[in-house]
Amino acid sequence: MVQRLAQLWLGLLLVMLASACANDPPPAPPAPVAGASETVRSSYVLAPGDRLRITVFSEDRLSGEFGVTTTGQISFPLIGNLDVAGKTLADVQSMIRTRLADGYVNDPRVTAEFVTFRPFFVLGEVARPGQFPYADGLTLRQAIASAGGFTYRAKRDRVFIQLPGDTKEYTVDLEAESNRLVKPGEIIRVGERFF
């Protein structure tokens, strides 16, 4: 009887391990290089949750801070709602400059800069899972620390990351890539260990 129970237990354990291995997402794409935040900023595309400061020189009433809405727009004085989701800061500057030059302002000079990026998320086996404000140069280890660190059940050698706009999770080896830079909007999930 004891031998039969041991065999059942071992069989169940093997099924669980095989299932866990079969469900592992593919490896993560290459991580951004540490210190590359200026490159990340120049290629960064806007999405809901981002906040911008737009300045139109010599036009104080047109300058200010604008948040990207859940529909991916900002509401700009005189020209109305602008679709900015998926666009870079340079695209937004150009769009506003073009629209203002079309009968509103002579030779508009427009600059746009980030005030805040959209938050990132840490889920799973951490002390305080949730949404956290993004900071430039944030590493994977720092992101997990901002969520209170690992719980005692956490699998500490790897995490799962869902990139903004993607539906898949990627496996990241935490020991090899603990200094990987986190991007705004990423979802980091810490899995549970089996033993």
From TrEMBL:
<feature type="domain" description="Soluble ligand binding">
    <location>
        <begin position="120"/>
        <end position="162"/>
    </location>
</feature>
<feature type="signal peptide">
    <location>
        <begin position="1"/>
        <end position="22"/>
    </location>
</feature>
<protein>
    <submittedName>
        <fullName>Polysaccharide export outer membrane protein</fullName>
    </submittedName>
</protein>
<keyword id="KW-0732">Signal</keyword>
<dbReference type="Pfam" id="PF02563">
    <property type="entry name" value="Poly_export"/>
</dbReference>
<dbReference type="InterPro" id="IPR003715">
    <property type="entry name" value="Poly_export_N"/>
</dbReference>
<dbReference type="GO" id="GO:0015159">
    <property type="term" value="F:polysaccharide transmembrane transporter activity"/>
</dbReference>
<dbReference type="InterPro" id="IPR049712">
    <property type="entry name" value="Poly_export"/>
</dbReference>
<dbReference type="Pfam" id="PF10531">
    <property type="entry name" value="SLBB"/>
</dbReference>
<feature type="domain" description="Polysaccharide export protein N-terminal">
    <location>
        <begin position="40"/>
        <end position="112"/>
    </location>
</feature>
<dbReference type="InterPro" id="IPR019554">
    <property type="entry name" value="Soluble_ligand-bd"/>
</dbReference>
